[in-house]
Fold this sequence. Notes:
The chain is an alpha+beta fold. Helix content is 43%, strand content 14%. The termini are far apart. It is found in: Nucleus.
Amino acid sequence: xxxxxxxxxxxxxxxxxxxxxxxxxxxxxxxxxxxxxxxxxxxxxxxxxxxxxxxxxxxxxxxxxxxxxxxxxxxxxxxxxxxxxxxxxxxxxxxxxxxxxxxxxxxxxxxxxxxxxxxxxxxxxxxxxxxxxxxxxxxxxxxxxxxxxxxxxxxxxxxxxxxxxxxxxxxxxxxxxxxxxxxxxxxxxxxxxxxxxxxxxxxxxxxxxxxxxxxxxxxxxxxxxxxxxxxxxxxxxxxxxxxxxxxxxxxxxxxxxxxxxxxxxxxxxxxxxxxxxxxxxxxxxxxxxxxxxxxxxxxxxxxxxxxxxxxxxxxxxxxxxxxxxxxxxxxxxxxxxxxxxxxxxxxxxxxxxxxxxxxxxxxxxxxxxxxxxxxxxxxxxxxxxxxxxxxxxxxxxxxxxxxxxxxxxxxxxxxxxxxxxxxxxxxxxxxxxxxxxxxxxxxxxxxxxxxxxxxxxxxxxxxxxxxxxxxxxxxxxxxxxxxxxxxxxxxxxxxxxxxxxxxxxxxxxxxxxxxxxxxxxxxxxxxxxxxxxxxxxxxxxxxxxxxxxxxxxxxxxxxxxxxxxxxxxxxxxxxxxxxxxxxxxxxxxxxxxxxxx
Length: 597
């Protein structure tokens, strides 16, 4: 008879307090305890009481760590059947509760009940002040307190008042520290049932809040609300100092520290401070040497996930950041931002002292040091001073010869981390910096900046003595030595001196017999790259240099110069003994020997 009521929907047992009806006497008894607050089932370990025996059983599993409900798909175990059922919907995307009116399906029966009100238009209780409608009279009654400002429920601890009794009960837990809602999976306790329900989704992986624009799912309503601002471009949180707006309150909070100079997160290893907890966490990996993100292609490891994602694009060739002005695309967001400024000529970072503009904030920061003129960090060895402590630390290594940064591939050591990072690209062949004009790629930003001047024809470095201009500061420094005759780079083996370090490097190979530039065709080796390039022309048969007088072609500039003498009739080597003339120095010298012997 009792089972038959599940089919007939007969409910003979009625509550004499609220008139709610039930099919079974046991269900009425359990319900009645919500009025009497009776909790006859007590946990022997924590004295926690429950109104239903099944709730006590579920609770006891938090002590025994028993998880008897197993997911057959992924073997994840749960202590509560409800948690398992919620979890199973991840695999099956099951929505067992369907609407008879429009066939829309829902994962929970409560969701279906709410949805059905759209069809039945069951909105019986209307607020006379704002026309808001409610399904239950008690909800309208509570809502009216919003208009009347009535807060009849007062806290006897701090006199704070509330419009709802439930709000007062929740508030009282801030005084009693009571957290009656316990997670069956991890024993974390909460003062509100809603907080426990939200927390439970961490375990079940349930994401019930769906974005109707891009279908991205979220665990919490708050997460969805923040995400929707991406589509609406809403930025409700505005900075009072500079009017910059943010979509998240946390974004504004972090930004305000740029004005207050507040850096509350301090490294306990080196006392460096940060505005964000995340930045401190990333910084700590410098000390721990932790690099948890490894590239599956080349095994290169990174301390940041986004650095790995950027690196992977060097393998895939992906360029997800397109320019909306010229169809160019970039692998890095920073590269796109720099490129866009070539269209807009925008320099958003202005110096307050001299109004000079900069495309990047780092450029402005470096420039400001010119005005302050404060070089507070002095070297104890040579008295050279620096604006920043890290610059002094780097400089000190030129005295101590310390090279703490080692390459994990070839064990070469470096005094600066930046030099190690640059060196690693010789192994990975990574070239993340791309020229906007000709798409040539570079391993280093400095290389790209130098290359860019080829297109702009910019020559900002001028010689004070002869006014010759150069694209690069290094070229000016090298040129200046032609006036001063300075040759600061001396060979330790023969004391020969050179004006350029590269010239010394080439010269040293005459002592070491090193020939690092090898021809792939015939294995012939050269000490200078330029000589290899000339040699390669023998294999390719290329003769790129043409004579303007007769069109003859030559593979090298020297050969062309010697040929041009035949046109200019410059027979510069004349014999003093017999007036014989020669076009070339070598046969002239050989001829001279015939007179001296």
